[in-house]
Design brief:
The protein is mostly helical and 140 residues long. The protein contains six helices and no strands.
């Protein structure tokens, strides 16, 4: 079984949620903003400009790959199907190939980390914590 992390719906679906479908307040939480300045010292309006620019860029990239041509509900379904596939491949294994990590584990970990940490309140976070628990369960 092979899972191509470069062209997965998971990667682009989470990016679309963060920059296009999600709210500015979620984005501010993602960049670590706790007041009118983010951790990198930017004012709200500067952070908003960056967020809008990233939204346009991420949507254009997703459209070029085909995923951005779908509705938000379809993007969420495609992304959730990737998460469920990852969960089924993992099954009861600690890693994709069994007990030893491989490079695919690193790529998938990065995507799952983004779905959990950088997408607060998203359907992806809920799926990973709900139906796809094998991706977060430590089997040691």
């Amino acid at each position: 079984m092979s899972y191509n992390t470069e062209h997965s719906n998971c990667f682009r679906g989470v990016s679309l949620y963060r920059y296009v479908y999600g709210s500015f307040n979620n984005y501010k939480r993602f960049v670590g903003e706790d007041s009118n300045k983010s951790n990198n010292g930017l004012d709200d309006w500067k952070t908003w400009i960056i967020w809008k620019y990233m939204a346009r860029t991420k949507l254009a990239n997703a459209k070029a790959m085909g995923l951005g041509l779908h509705s938000q509900a379809e993007v969420e379904q495609l992304t959730l199907s990737d998460l469920k596939y990852i969960s089924s491949v993992l099954g009861s294994n600690k890693y994709i190939t069994g007990d030893q990590p491989c490079e695919h584990d690193c790529g998938i970990f990065g995507q799952l980390f983004q779905a959990l940490w950088a997408s607060p309140g998203s359907v992806y976070e809920k799926a990973i914590n709900g139906t796809c628990t094998t991706v977060t369960t430590d089997s040691s």
